Amino acid sequence: MTKPTSLELNPRVESSPLYNQDLAPASREQRHWGTYNFAALWISMSVNILTYMLAASLIQGGMDWKQAVATIFVGNMIVLIPMLLNSHPGAKYGIPFPVLARASFGVLGANVAAVLRALVACGWFGIQAWIGGEAISTLLGTLAPGWKNVTYGPAICFFIFWLINLAVVLKGIECIRVLQGISAPVLLGVGLLLLGWAYTTAGGFGPMLSVPSRFMNFSEFLKFLIPALNGTVGFWATVSLNIPDFTRFARNQREQIIGQALALPTTMTLYAFVGIVVTSATVVIYGTAIWDPVQLLSRFHSPVAVVISLAAILLATLNVNIGANVVSPANDFSNLWPRGISFRTGGVITCFMGIALMPWKLLSDYRTFILGWLGGYAAFLGPVAGIMICDYFVIRRRELKLNDLYLRDGIYEYSRGFNWRAVLALALGAGTALAGLLIPGAHVLYDYSWFVGFFVAFGTYYAMMRSTGRALLTAEEAV
User: 411: which of 16, 82, 165, 233 lies 20 to 30 Å off by Cα?
Assistant: First the structure.
């Protein structure tokens, strides 16, 4: 059982412009998360509307239920690997993601990685807020049918739900902590309700699960499978970077590894199965795949069922949005200016950026969601993961100098705070993946954007760091 590293910091660290209480290493008293806590974290984050929509989009794209379930499971087993690798330094040193990024990118260059990760989280925040607003609009349309004729009704409801999220951020995360254990059971209940409806209306599981794949041959299937698998990995590419924000509170390495390994792939696959089966049922019932559960609920004839289900979605979406899409970007924005941007201010920035990224366009159809949104940002986050994993496990052999992560004159200063080797590796990794959009016949590079970016950046960073003869940290140097 690996014990956390000692947290004795140099007295001058607290006066450093790179330090604040939100970015400080977790104290021993704070490190009380065990196996159950990490399993509960992933159950809470996995059982959400976007998991359902990710799975449902595979059915809408043409897969049958077996192909969709396998894609979800394999994708989550793959992303579990970088998830656990990046979890290790968080659990060992008690540091959040933006501080860990200072080791590879430099104490100022880490802002490049942090802002990239934060912008993606802002996009997810906006997407969740749009789903919440859509639920409010559908709820109002059920209670007062005239609402359906209101111009810009969904946009008004989006703004209302966005304001609710902003109010929670301004009041503080503690006000919703009591609800964190409710979101997963609530959404699980909605999923089971939809499953029961699908079973009854479609005439049992047989007709639902007999919906065939729409691909005429293996070549057509592979053309959709590759970006779908990349999108499934990209779905959690954000958290695979900032997972130290959570594992910094782990009691030891063993418990965080077991908790995550047990809960992530299993919960994602099981809840995705609900979305897959229900969406398959909509093909049987309506003749077309409906991948948005809010839109599906709006077709129910029982106002009571619609109201209860949508209210549950609102509560759970609010909780998941604050927990999954505000905590990490708030830390990332705080890292830009630790003395001037608090966690709360970072949360407010996240809320406004969520609007700027126009989530209504990201959710316009499954192609935009999987091929555009998930595949696009995976091209940037894959390289960041490759660089950080290479730096921590290969270059530094899991040994960091904790004090220097918070000081301007330490070993992570590099060139005026920037490790330009990491920045160049990031540019090459992302550029190679995105080149698939521009070079005829090379679209596979973009289809595998996360993988391409990861391995190109990993190899480039390793070659440049080794070629400069940069010394490895020894156990005696590490804090």
Answer: 82
Q: How close are the terminal C-alpha atoms of the chain, in Å?
A: 19
In DSSP terms, 250 is beta-bridged to 33
Kindly write down the DSSP assignment for every residue of 320-382, as one continuous string. Answer: HHHHHHTHHHHHHHHHHSTTT--HHHHHHHHHHHHHHT-HHHHTSSHHIIIIIIIHHHHHHHH
Instruction: Record the pTM.
Output: 0.83
Dig out the tokens for 55 from the structure. 């799975």
Q: Of 332, 412, 407, nearest to 15 (Cα)?
A: 407
For residues 473 and 205, what is the distance between their CA atoms, to the nearest angstrom?
58
Task: List the chain domain ranges.
Answer: 20-365
| Separation CA 145–CA 148 (nearest Å) | 6
Looking at 2.60.60.20, 3.40.50.920, 1.20.1440.230, 1.10.4160.10, the CATH number of the domain 20-365 comes to 1.10.4160.10
